[in-house]
Amino acid sequence: NKILYKDQIMERTNIVDIEDRGYQFGDGIYEVIGVYDGEPLMMDEHMERLARSARELKLPLPASISELKNKLMQLVEANGLEEGIIYMQVSRGTAPRFHEFPDPKTPAVTIAYTREEARESDVEVRGASAVLAEDIRWLRCDIKTLNLLPNVMAKQKAVENNAVEAILHRGDIVTEASASNVFIVKDGELYTHPANHYILNGITRRKIIDLCGALHLTVHEESFTVDELLNADEVFVSATKLDIIPILKIGGDTIGSGDPGEITGKIVQAFRSLYKKDVKN
Ligand code: PLP
């Protein structure tokens, strides 16, 4: 498999410098982009978010967004990727280890690789369980940074409980999940946490909100409580890597009827038809 490292596409080798700031401080940003039929999905939206993350962290990108997009396309072609993901990260570069930003001439280090992965998994159809976990992250969850330790701890809790996700809450308020956004359905309408500094504004989340418009479904970008989550008619999580997964159980509580919900099903169909030509609405 080939990787994109700095500005070159090369064979995969061990190339992380011990003083790469991404490695030492988590000082960098990343994106995960789905690929289907050899085509990156919602590439523009992902790259716009990367640019925003870079601006928020005062991290100068090593190339223009359109150059980065071209490189990623070349990588997908070089690896012959049909279905899977592109992972891309940009760190603030390699410099002697001091907390403050390095010399502004220090070039950012860009790295990207692809991974083959089926876009459609069994849990998307059958649904899965989630657990609850306190959201202990910092207050800039809107930036897609490499600092993911609280997310890692939460996801591990989910896995140890045979669950697919950990749904995070700050006190009473549900924010998102360890690596996905959360939606609930109550009385035929959807609710999801507003896109502010408490959540990552998922590309999948935004697309679902758009699709709901076309499906004549009302979405409230309003926060909801843990109690409202547990008493919802339907719950699902959304992310590039997961697509949309119906959540049937949270901890010991069954959600709604305990089966994937009808509204979730409609949204899953509509979402898949965006990239799968053989899915009918
Ligand atoms: N929230 C968090 C914390 C995430 O890590 C992710 C994706 O990795 C998402 C939400 C979903 O974002 P997207 O739909 O852009 O993949």
Can you put this structure into words, describing what you see?
This protein has helices at about 20-25, 45-55, 65-80, 120-125, 150-160, 205-215, 225-230, 260-275; strands at about 1-5, 10, 30-35, 40, 85-90, 110-115, 130-135, 165-170, 175, 180-185, 190, 220, 235-240, 245-250, 255. It has 8 helices and 15 strands. Strands 7, 8, 9, 10, 11, 12, 13, 14 and 15 form a 9-stranded mixed sheet that branches. Strands 2-1-6-5-3-4 form a 6-stranded antiparallel sheet. It starts with a strand and ends in a 6-residue tail after the last helix. About 40% of the residues are buried. It folds into 2 domains: about 1-115, 2-Layer Sandwich (D-amino Acid Aminotransferase, Chain A, domain 1), CATH 3.30.470.10; about 120-275, D-amino Acid Aminotransferase, subunit A, domain 2 (D-amino Acid Aminotransferase, Chain A, domain 2). Helices cover about 30% and strands about 30% of the residues. The model has no long low-confidence stretch (mean pLDDT about 95). By secondary structure, the protein is α+β, with helices and mostly antiparallel strands. A hairpin with a 2-residue loop joins strand 1 (about 1-5) and strand 2. The structure holds pyridoxal-5'-phosphate. Pyridoxal-5'-phosphate binds near residues 180, 200, 203 and 204. Its cofactor is pyridoxal 5'-phosphate. It is an enzyme of class 2 (transferase). One of its GO terms (cellular component) is cytosol. It comes from Lentibacillus halodurans. GO terms for molecular function: D-alanine-2-oxoglutarate aminotransferase activity; pyridoxal phosphate binding.
